[in-house]
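[Primary structure, fold]
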Amino acid sequence: MNSETSGETPVDVLSPVRFDTKIAVLLRDDLETWQRLNVTSFLVSGLGPTIPEVIGDLYEDADGTAYLPMFRQPVLVFEGTKEVLKAAHARALARALPRAVFTSDLFSTGNDRDNRAAVRAVGTGELDLVGLAVYGPRNGVDKVVKGARMHP
C-alpha cells in the first residue's frame, strides 16, 4: 500500500508520516483501569471491518512468521467527564463521523446480542456513555474531542 492509496499525506519515504485522518477513543474519566482497557478494545474493534482503509498490511518477522495486520495509524486515547463525552457524541453525530459507543449497561451483559439490545433500549440522548470511538478527518475528530484531555 502506498501513500496515494492509504490516506497518508504523500511525502518521501524518509519524512515522518502524517495522516489526513485520526482515530480517537474518548473514555469517561471515572472508569476503573480494567474498564478503560475493556472499553477501548471493544470500541476500536468495529473500525477495521467497517472502514477497511484503517487497516495496514500483514506483519512478518525476519523468520517469515506472519502476524495479523493492525491499524495503519495511531489510536489516540482521551478522557473526559460524562458531560464532555455527551457533547463529543453529539458532535460526532452532527458531523456524521463513523463512531462506536460503549454504555455503562454493557458492563452487565456478556455477549454481543445482549450488548446490542442494551444500546437499542435507550434513546440517543439518554445513553449513559462511558466510551466513544470516532474516525474521520483530523480536524473533524479534533473538534469532536474538544474539551477532552489526552489519557495519562
Summary: Residues 113 and 119 are 10 Å apart (CA to CA). The chain has six helices and seven strands. Strands lie at 21-28, 59-60, 66-67, 75-80, 99-103, 129-137, 149-150.
